[in-house]
Automatic annotation (TrEMBL):
GO terms for cellular component: membrane. Residues 15-105 form the Amino acid transporter transmembrane domain. The chain crosses the membrane at residues 22-39, 45-69, 89-107. It is found in: Membrane. This is Amino acid transporter transmembrane domain-containing protein. It comes from the Eukaryota. The lineage of its organism: Eukaryota, Haptista, Haptophyta, Prymnesiophyceae, Coccolithales. Keywords: Membrane, Transmembrane, Transmembrane helix.
Length: 110
């Protein structure tokens, strides 16, 4: 007998491109429109975003990655001991958390 025709892929009103939800695009467009309407100096926005991204990339993400790598490490007796990696990871996270608001305040006050 005749085989039934394959069904056409269904599309939802809540998807945009390649199955991504529409609300993500709407939130992004709304946020960028609000920034463009209320900020008169684009340089200050770029400077602020640069400080946030650089602090995240230089201190917080490496610290969190080292902490995640060290979390699974155990000694031969099954107990976790303080390691240099864990101490440095915690130090990086603390420095990043201290620098993030400080640098954001310095850039926003200029």
């Amino acid at each position: 007998g005749a085989e039934p025709a394959p069904e056409a892929p269904t599309t939802s009103a809540t998807t945009l491109l390649h199955g991504r939800p529409l609300y993500i695009a709407l939130v992004y467009l709304t946020f960028t429109t609000m920034v463009s309407l209320f900020v008169s100096d684009l340089g200050s926005v770029i400077a602020f975003m640069g400080t946030l991204n650089s602090t995240l990339l230089l201190f917080l993400l490496p610290g969190l990655c080292y902490a995640a790598l060290d979390a699974a490490a155990t000694s031969q007796d099954g107990k976790r001991h303080a390691s240099c990696t864990r101490i440095l990871a915690q130090l990086y996270i603390i420095i990043g958390l201290l620098l993030l608001p400080l640098v954001a305040y310095i850039v926003s006050s200029e």
